[in-house]
Amino acid sequence: LQKAAEQLKPSIPIKFHISSRTDSGVHALANAAHLDIQRAPGKAPFTGPQLLQGLNHHLKPEPIRILRAQRVSSTFHARFCALSRTYIYRLLLGCAHRSQIPVFEQDLCWAPPGGPLDIPAMRAAAQLLLGTHDFSTFHSPHAEAAAQSPVRTLQLLQLQPGHGLLGHHHLHRGLEFWEVKVKSKSFLYRQVRRMVGALVAVGQGRLAPEQLQELLELRDPRALPPHATAPPQGLFLHSVEY
Prior knowledge:
One of its GO terms (biological process) is tRNA pseudouridine synthesis. The chain is of the alpha+beta class.
């Protein structure tokens, strides 16, 4: 996106800031960013529609599109002014083998192996994670020690029926989508994927809901088994609120 903005020939280097960074393989249905773009003397500032058209023209080869552009105050910051971020993790249940994943859903969901999941147990476990906690257990152990506090407030964590990109009627018999929807002002590195992985472990009977509470209280990233991190392809940044 920064390269596309530089193609618009600003008079000074672009300063580009995005609301949320995502791991490789993670998707965004809608992200937000801000940039400072100054044109050469004598040239009028870009309007929102002009910026939208110009950026999308230079983004053609990339799997990204600008949906809306508007002028904001100089005090606005896409990352620090965000009130909340909402993520959705898409699960496909009922797959005995990867070959059963619909072709249009490849790399857009996670099909956990091992049969159906205990949805009520997963919902009970999700309730234990709601609210304000030290989420150190759900911080990636491989990340460098971050300066920010591990305390986060989950405003929403729910498990709900989902749908395929082409609708339910295109799924094979026995396959169904579920979505984990989670909302907070901010998240720790890989927190959402690690929480989803732990919830799936509960759904598979490998963890009891109360064990999730115990893991949370340990406040230790090494307490969560390495295999408990959900893969990136099922995760979508859904929206950012200001």
